[in-house]
TrEMBL record:
Annotated source species: Planktothrix serta PCC 8927
Record keywords: Membrane, Transmembrane, Transmembrane helix
TM stretches of this protein: 54-78
Domain of life, source organism: Bacteria
Name listed for the protein in its UniProt record: Sodium:proton antiporter
Record bears the keyword Membrane: yes
Length: 84
């Protein structure tokens, strides 16, 4: 099952490249960081299933639900500021 984690890490590096070394558009960077948060929480869930550890799984679920909500709130804040 190590190949699954290696593939997930490689998939995690793609939006990291987009966020750090590509365009300076704020929306693209926020989208890339939201993708990183989602993929890292999915990796945490896979590790928790492989280790049969529910506490790690609960932390992954909290990151998955709350992490993206913070990005949505930040996007709405930036949207309202730019309209003024």
């Amino acid at each position: 099952m190590n190949w699954v984690l290696i593939a997930m890490i490689i998939a995690l590096l793609i939006p990291l490249y987009e966020a750090c070394w590509q365009e300076d558009d704020v929306w693209e960077k926020m989208l890339a960081f939201a993708s990183i948060a989602t993929k890292s929480s999915m990796m945490i869930l896979v590790v928790s299933v492989l280790r049969d550890d529910w506490m790690i799984g609960i932390a992954g679920v909290i990151i998955l639900t709350v992490g993206n909500a913070g990005f949505m709130l930040l996007a709405q804040l930036l949207k309202r500021i730019s309209y003024r």
